DNA sequence: CGAGCGCTTGATTGAGTTCAAAAATCGTGG
DNA sequence: CCACGATTTTTGAACTCAATCAAGCGCTCG
């Protein structure tokens, strides 16, 4: 499982085998069976998850019991409730596995330890965080201005692999529409 | 104008008068007249703006020419295109003044200089950034799950002062609805 | 003081929801 | 490996919330 992480990091930052060994020690590998809930709303998040196989998601449950998916995390993505993890506040959302998955989990102090091993490690983590922020901004812009169909097309452009392996009702939940609407949109799109 | 910043910082971090003097030197005060555009989509953002008087906003213009407001920044708020500023990439949005305003503008290297003056300065800036991220997440959740009326009520709870001084069509633009709809929602809300 | 902008109100339209039921797919145990 | 039950997806019909189009009112500011 660590080799997935190694390949991922190669694209972001340079490091020696020794350094990577030290980084590997910051992670605990774990198999997660489909459906397992790793974090519940209200709990304090203790881990950051790097997904090496399968797929996780984060989501909220609204007052009517409806799920709204915030993020999908397939291979090479990380996921957690950043705010809860860093400030040790109650989490805003749930995290669970939507496929049989394998993750590398890291602790709250990961960032400091990572920076101690790799001088630009802090820089890199910050960049990743900025990217998340930018993605979230784009999503707001999309929700404000684009139709359901446009948002769907945007989604499959952005997450082509996720779009194929995830149940449609979850994509609908991510887009903020009903599964019925997504089904109809897909029919329209197929007939151009 | 610097005393507004001083009061603001007092609530976040402790510092001596000397330190504050050094911080003040990182900022350039500027009067901005209503309607002035400080950043355009596609430009590279060079400044972070801390608002000491008036109100700025950031917004995108979609393919149909419609504006969608991302953020309001009244007194004691900062605003910029973080991503553009830090990575020197083209900005995603516009920033302009919706009232006669006064701002303190800081350069790209502000964070390092600020950290050099105040040991926990970097920590503080990071916390502010995390808060922005959390706010953006909440907005996504709201857009996914709440009705226009619920979003409006949420808005006036979160920005009671902004709700009173900003034109309604801009609030509508922030909420992702038309001015007509907002007008009707307000009528409904008034009659309970 | 008039032109233009912002807000309101009304009538109509339309995108997406809800409810219901059938069709397709998945997963599990025998 | 098949069969059966459960879940997911599709389809249809009625409905609803918000958008669009259009007109009128009231400011303000030039």
- Oligomeric form: homodimer
Query: From the helix content, strand content and strand pairing of chain A, which structural class follows?
Result: alpha+beta
Largest interface, per-chain counts?
Answer: A-B, 26 and 26 residues
The poorly predicted ranges of chain A are none
**Approximately what portion of the residues of chain A adopt beta-strand conformation?**
15-25%
Report the major sheet of chain A.
Answer: 4 strands, antiparallel
How many β-strands of chain A, per DSSP?
8
Name the CATH class of the domain at 2-110 in chain A: Mainly Beta
Topology of chain A as a string of helices (H) and strands (E): HHEEEEEEHEEHHHHHH
Describe the structure.
Two copies of one chain form a homodimer. With 192 residues, chain A is of the alpha+beta class. Chain A has a domain at 2-110: Jelly Rolls (Sandwich). Helices cover 48% and strands 22% of the residues of chain A. The first copy, chain A, is built from nine helices and eight strands. Chain A has helices spanning 2-10, 17-24, 82-87, 110-117, 121-145, 148-158, 160-165, 168-175, 179-190; strands spanning 27-32, 37-39, 48-53, 55-61, 67-74, 78-79, 94-97, 101-106. A four-stranded antiparallel beta sheet of chain A has the order 1-8-3-6, with helices on one face. Chain A has a four-stranded antiparallel beta sheet with strand order 2-7-4-5. In chain A, strand 4 and strand 5 form a beta hairpin. In chain A, helix 4 (110-117) packs across helix 5 and helix 8 packs across helix 9 (179-190). Chain A is globular and about 55 Å long. The N and C termini of chain A lie far apart (41 Å). The structure holds a DNA duplex (30 and 30 nucleotides).
